[in-house]
Write a structure and sequence with these properties.
Layout: E1 3-6, E2 15-18, H1 27-30, H2 58-62, E3 69-71, E4 76-78, H3 84-87, H4 94-98, H5 109-115, E5 119-127, E6 130-141, E7 151-152
Parallel strand pairs: 5-7
Antiparallel strand pairs: 1-2, 3-4, 5-6
């Protein structure tokens, strides 16, 4: 299960998929008081196990990538588990299968090197003094790598955010008059 984050919802419909990075030492699992989050032998960090999860939300707060989502109505944390039902039998995860731009890719190092020759895969992320190594890699431009094979996540924290303005349309307090053809407007009672 992945979710999408909007890049700048006020300006664009562009989204970024948020997939689990399947950390070597998953912080989400380490902070779980119920021991509900497990990592399989092949490195897949799974969603919380339903009988054990107490829906405390520790994993949501602890994940440096913002991946786990807590569903309070169901009392469970869910996240990308790399479609373990598919990948454990040799199939690709569904997200990589249906991604039209191949922004999400599942394959070998050789396959991705052939597909993206001007990029380099990175699976080491620096959060201040903490280094996190993951099973999932992101592709970074080869010419910007400068010999460093990690991403400093906190480097952008000093940047000032772009201002965002949102314009909301006012809804008239009186219902609009019916169209000229005499048919009543089916959306007349709908407020936005």
């Amino acid at each position: 299960m992945i979710h999408l984050e909007y890049v700048d919802r006020a300006q664009s419909t562009q989204t970024v998929p948020v997939v689990c990075m399947h950390c070597e030492q998953p912080t989400c699992a380490e902070v779980c008081p119920a021991d509900a989050i497990k990592r399989t032998g092949d490195g897949v960090v799974q969603s919380a196990r339903r009988p054990r999860c107490i829906a405390c939300g520790n994993c949501v707060v602890a994940c440096p990538f913002g991946v786990p989502e807590l569903y309070e109505d169901r009392k469970i944390m869910m996240k990308c588990d790399m479609c373990y039902d598919r990948t454990s039998v040799g199939k690709k995860p569904m997200c990589a299968t249906v991604c039209p731009s191949q922004a999400l890719f599942f394959g070998t190092h050789e396959q991705i090197a052939q597909l993206r020759p001007r990029s380099i895969p990175v699976n080491e992320f620096h959060f201040g003094q903490q280094t996190i190594t993951t099973q999932v890699m992101i592709m970074t431009p080869r010419d910007r790598a400068n010999g460093t094979a990690y991403v400093d996540v906190t480097a952008a924290m000093g940047e000032r955010p772009r201002s965002r303005t949102i314009a909301l349309r006012l809804v008239a307090s009186e219902p609009p008059s019916p169209p000229a053809d005499g048919e009543p407007d089916p959306f007349a009672g709908v407020e936005v």
